Amino acid sequence: MEVKEGSLCKSCREGKLRKREVNQTFEREGLEVKIDGIPALVCDSCRQIYFPPGIGDKIAAAANGLFKLSEIKHAGGYRAVV
Ligand SMILES: [Zn+2]
């Protein structure tokens, strides 16, 4: 089922979904990367985030790319926010 702006939230069944840009933080083996400005729909009641079809895959690919970058940048082992 397609999720679009104005749809009823499937999580709380009270809020409506609004278009927003969100941030997502990913962590892998002590490395942390953050992606800003992801287009998403956010429930105005419970803040559940819904990504449009296809966006999830793109975010995962972007996160993977950032992790690779972080591994190169940090031969040491401290946490990084890209
Ligand atoms: Zn909700």
Describe the structure.
It is built from one helix and three strands. By secondary structure, the protein is an alpha+beta fold. It has one domain (17-74): Ubiquitin-like (UB roll) (Roll), CATH 3.10.20. A three-stranded antiparallel sheet has the order 1-2-3, with helices on one face. The protein is elongated and about 45 Å long. It starts with 16 loop residues before the first strand and ends in a 9-residue tail after the last helix. The mean pLDDT is 86. Bound molecules: zinc ion. Zinc ion is lined by residues 9, 11-12, 15, 43, 45-46, 48.
Number of domains: 1
**Mean pLDDT reading:** 86
Helix-and-strand structural type:
alpha+beta
Query: Could you give a short account of the major beta sheet?
Result: 3 strands, antiparallel
Order of helices and strands: EEEH
- Report the end-to-end length measured between terminal Cα atoms: 34 Å
* Count of helical stretches: 1
* Architecture (CATH level 2) name: Roll
How much is the radius of gyration in Å?
15 Å
CATH class: Alpha Beta
Report the count of strand segments. 3
Strand order of the largest sheet: 1-2-3
Please bin the fraction of helical residues.
10-25%
How would you describe the shape? elongated
